[in-house]
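// run 5 | inverse folding | seed 20
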């Protein structure tokens, strides 16, 4: 299939139909709704606004679409999921993260099903799939980010309960979540970590406003656990599986973040081309200048390379093969390449690209952030060399 910035997917009729319907929803419904209500990427979102997107996306068959049919999804493979995730951010929609269920929704809990008991599925995970509840994932701490084993949050067995104490940061979706998946170190052990389902209204659990990242999105929260007592039945998986649950999820997320970054960079390309066509300098459109043409060529080439890597890795994941090395490579290259594209977009836009509130400026800040989020560039390089050498 020839390369195009906006793929047609004419070699995959099912995907072509899904992408067409998704583009229609975004263009005809979601973007007009955002514009009518003044919703931007930096808006503080309330639960009713998000639930409206969850419900409508579910009606259209997009919410949790990658889950297996028995859980209400359509069993999309990773390649198809990557295509939809790219389309979402390429649209520029501020609420794009809620259409498939990335932010607190089914894409957060799908991988947890194999660890959950029947009771846990019924009470916690399936309501998320139906759009009735939302969850967050709490692994990171102030001094335990890349070096996750430095976490100090502890879980102490006490009869038929566990008592949790600690402070988690950068828990995405915490401001509007109902429960959290909390990874904690077992008390009196230096190397045993477990995962727990914690209702956020449990006594001893407080959700605080988290730090606002440079993207300006107000999606993060801190979880403060002070003698927070939860039932032993809320242990997710087995004792000692906490890091497997947490880091295993992160490995896949490193791949699945990539198409969202590509979509954002594609949006920056679209805005740059539109600006270069209409902005006149020295008696001609910017697009007539070879310097601008070269920047656009570099942007398109980076997007092609990143998309090719991601789709090749997604296809390998679809075959059930291990993608640990490739996922790190994809996240490393995509984060750097898409940030380069955003930087070129700022340069093309000149003073407009430097103005707070301009869409290109916001994309630039967001893509800069993802050179750190879900693994820094340096951590990815370490992991790649460790695996290969």
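// decoded
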């Amino acid at each position: 299939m020839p390369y195009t910035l906006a793929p047609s997917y004419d070699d995959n009729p099912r995907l072509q139909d899904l992408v067409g319907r998704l583009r229609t929803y975004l263009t005809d419904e979601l973007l007009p709704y955002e514009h009518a209500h003044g919703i931007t990427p930096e808006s503080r979102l309330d639960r009713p606004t998000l639930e409206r997107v969850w419900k409508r996306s579910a009606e259209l068959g997009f919410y949790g679409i990658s889950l297996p049919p028995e859980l209400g999804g359509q069993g999309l493979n990773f390649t198809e999921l990557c295509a939809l995730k790219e389309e979402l951010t390429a649209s520029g929609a501020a609420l794009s993260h809620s259409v498939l269920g990335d932010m607190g929704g089914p894409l957060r809990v799908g991988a947890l099903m194999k660890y959950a008991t029947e009771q846990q599925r019924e009470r916690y995970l399936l309501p998320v799939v139906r759009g009735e509840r939302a969850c967050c994932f709490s692994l990171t701490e102030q001094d335990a980010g890349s070096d996750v084993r430095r976490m100090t949050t502890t879980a102490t067995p006490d009869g038929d309960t566990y008592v949790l104490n600690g402070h988690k940061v950068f828990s995405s979706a915490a401001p509007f979540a109902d429960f959290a998946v909390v990874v904690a170190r077992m008390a009196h052990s230096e190397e045993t970590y477990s995962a727990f389902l914690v209702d956020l209204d449990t006594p001893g659990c407080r959700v605080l406003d988290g730090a606002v990242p440079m993207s300006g999105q107000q999606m993060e929260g801190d979880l403060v656990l002070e003698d927070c007592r939860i039932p032993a039945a809320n242990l997710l998986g087995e004792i000692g599986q906490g890091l497997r649950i947490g880091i295993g999820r992160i490995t896949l997320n490193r791949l699945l973040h990539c198409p969202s970054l590509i979509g954002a960079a594609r949006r920056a390309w679209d805005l740059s081309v539109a600006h270069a066509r209409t902005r006149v300098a020295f008696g001609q459109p910017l697009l007539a200048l070879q310097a601008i043409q070269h920047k656009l060529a570099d942007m398109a080439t980076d997007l092609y390379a990143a998309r090719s890597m991601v789709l090749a890795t997604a296809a390998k994941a679809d075959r059930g093969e291990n993608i640990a090395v490739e996922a790190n490579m994809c996240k490393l290259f995509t984060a750097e390449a898409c940030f380069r594209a955003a930087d070129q977009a700022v340069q093309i836009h000149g003073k407009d690209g430097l103005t707070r509130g301009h869409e290109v400026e916001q994309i630039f800040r967001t893509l800069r952030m993802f050179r750190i989020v879900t693994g820094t560039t340096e951590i990815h390089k370490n992991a790649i060399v460790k695996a290969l050498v």
